[in-house]
Amino acid sequence: MKIAIVILNWNGQELMEKFLPSVVAHSIEDATICVADNNSTDDSIAFLKEHYPQVQIIQNEINGGFAKGYNDALKHVDADVYALVNSDIEVSENWLKPIKKVFEQDSNTAIIQPKILDYKDKTKFEYAGAAGGFVDFMGYPFCRGRIFMNLEQDQGQFNDVADIFWASGACFFIKSAIYHQLGGFDEQYFAHQEEIDLCWRVQNEGYAIKYVGGSEVYHVGGATLRESNPQKTYLNFRNSLFTIAKNVPKRFVFIVIFLRLILDAVAGIKFILELRPIHTWAIIRAHLSFYWHLRKMMSKRRALSFKRTNYFYCFSIVWEHFILRKKRFSSIK
């Protein structure tokens, strides 16, 4: 099995100086390492050529964000499995072996995510993926080990191999044939939640997604767009609606969209009360973009097989967490 680790970079020389050494040290014998550069204007390419000549460089013509950046780069990568790894990820020794083993044992597994811990506090799970993701009836994502902003301590409770609904784009293994079969990431997303959409489409085609707790990586998080950035609010709200429109089964899709629009309005009011009206405007912009693209998103449903209809883990993670005050994944029914 040929594995290619592909790191998407945009003006990230400082991140590569800090995190690329662990990737090279712990992966070079088991995988090809590539950096896909999104038309950086810093000295990233010169740095790589000088210090890491063993790393392959793919230079994209434009900065098309996460989705287009990977779609463009992976056309030039020859491998059985792509490991899409954020530039702010530190990997552990032998991190590839448990993942390779699961791929070899289960031919129906298309995507795998390792355990993602917080680089700043390696006793805790990290927000972007933790121990594997799920969604509720209304498409809200949450994780084993992370419900909204509540992060669990890693006490070995997720040292397993488990079926999950979505894998984090921070460290995302996918079989190359399936990636190209489904057209890769949806480039209209630009960034944020495109991995949830791809995972949903993969399962709609009947493939499995797994979490492998025997593999650990450590993620900084927020290195591209921080939580306080209204552009991140815009992309998260809009792209979540895109994913629902494309993937929720027909009998649920319009009621789910309706409920999400109401809850998004509540979120907008909350931002105003918190004196953060710029984020309320970001939600309004997200809805306007969603309405503009709705027909196109609905048309993309025709390409799906909808082999998986039981997509949600619980009815409302908002209710479970904010009303019933549940903070741990194990308490969610």
How would you describe what is shown here?
- With 333 residues, the chain is α/β, with parallel strands linked by helices.
- The chain has two domains: 3-219, Spore Coat Polysaccharide Biosynthesis Protein SpsA, Chain A (Alpha-Beta Complex), CATH 3.90.550; 230-331, no CATH class.
- The protein contains ten helices and 14 strands.
- It has helices spanning 13-27, 44-51, 65-74, 96-105, 176-181, 194-204, 230-247, 250-273, 277-300, 317-323; strands at residues 3-9, 32-37, 56-59, 81-85, 89-91, 109-118, 121-125, 133-135, 141-143, 146-147, 150-151, 161-163, 171-175, 208-219.
- Strands 1, 2, 3, 4, 5, 6, 7, 12, 13 and 14 form a ten-stranded mixed sheet that branches. It has a two-stranded antiparallel ribbon with strand order 8-9. It has a two-stranded antiparallel sheet with strand order 10-11.
- A hairpin with a 2-residue loop joins strand 10 (146-147) and strand 11.
- The longest helix is centred in the C-terminal third of the chain and has 24 residues, at 250-273.
- The chain is globular and about 50 Å long.
- 44% of the residues are buried.
- The mean pLDDT is 96.
